[in-house]
């Protein structure tokens, strides 16, 4: 069906309303039918529930964004100075690549138990576990700054990668639980913003804090400083989450969220929810296309140091700055896309346009990398980042629209699982292609898959279930108000019998 604006003043005819509800909100067989019947009963026989926006919502999303930043910083802190850590720990380049790929690999088996835990225990428990694991990982790394302790630093990175499982899919859930329908995409973008900013700092800071020196004791000192700073920040964020982070507001922010809250827990089955999601064809297409796009981004980020050093020897600092440019441009793209979605609700059109421009950006970046001018690489990498990284919140929000009223954490988790799988495949394959055929061939490899993803995105049917639910709730409220007005008018106009004639 075609997309509908969320802010229309047009009245919905009762028959059309009922048809939309059946087509867009009703779930499939099993316990899903019970949930749909319950929801229809709520819509048909009760007044719209009270909603409210709390100022605390901004503190919640900013705190989440901050601990997401701290975690994502560590994803790339080894890879961006790949050659330096190879020298310090006396390991090969593929081993250091795994310091980034462990983030992707850990996500795949753990995402399903984590999303189950999210549905059972809620956002606060997930936030506490995430920050605790991240904090523990940073202090393990502090103890690993010796050339013979690579296994210890890998253990610390594994702990941080496990924390990421409790972080990566949360932006859309926090946005839905805390924010109104006119700001939910912006809030999701802010949640993703923290992850992107952490990656940006991960590109920029390690090459500055850990210069490429030959003295091992001096190098150990520089690495230790970086690890201590990270551990201090992670500890502070863990304490803040303990005292500040709240599960959910007392009153829901939207009618869609009120309906989701009203479904009794005994009518919800996590495995049935997964089955419904996997039978949702538009969502399956989105899972694949999201994985292709974000997997390409992971590969570019992990191998960026190698690609830059190949063409611009001893430019580790500028490699970090180019990575920073990619992510900063992507952060701007994310915020612009989030605001645009809140204003227009054109989910498919925006997603397709950004995906296509990611392909164009990758082609231009691949063609200009070997020209010998670093300033050109900065420009083309920035253009690539604006669209490729800006795509992240679009995928989350489009998924929530296609799968409402399923859990936002589950749909986001499946998207990220796809991204991790493709990220590992693309990183390994592109690394091997670069070793054998050079950086141009490696980047063309990614362009081919971005082209496939663009075509598949065009095939996704736009079925905006959450927007339709909010429209139906608004229409029901308007009908109720009209009914009340009509009833009051009828009472006033009805002839009154004097007491003497009774």
From TrEMBL:
Localisation per UniProt entry: Cell membrane; Endoplasmic reticulum membrane; Mitochondrion membrane
Membrane topology: Multi-pass membrane protein
Catalyzed reactions: choline(out) = choline(in); ethanolamine(in) = ethanolamine(out); heme b(in) = heme b(out)
Keywords, in A-Z order: Cell membrane, Endoplasmic reticulum, Membrane, Mitochondrion, Transmembrane, Transmembrane helix, Transport
GO molecular function, one term: heme binding
Primary role: Choline uniporter that specifically mediates choline uptake at the blood-brain-barrier. Responsible for the majority of choline uptake across the blood-brain-barrier from the circulation into the brain. Choline, a nutrient critical for brain development, is a precursor of phosphatidylcholine, as well as betaine. Also mediates transport of ethanolamine. Choline and ethanolamine transport is not coupled with proton transport and is exclusively driven by the choline gradient across the plasma membrane. Also acts as a heme b transporter.
Name listed for the protein in its UniProt record: FLVCR choline and putative heme transporter 2
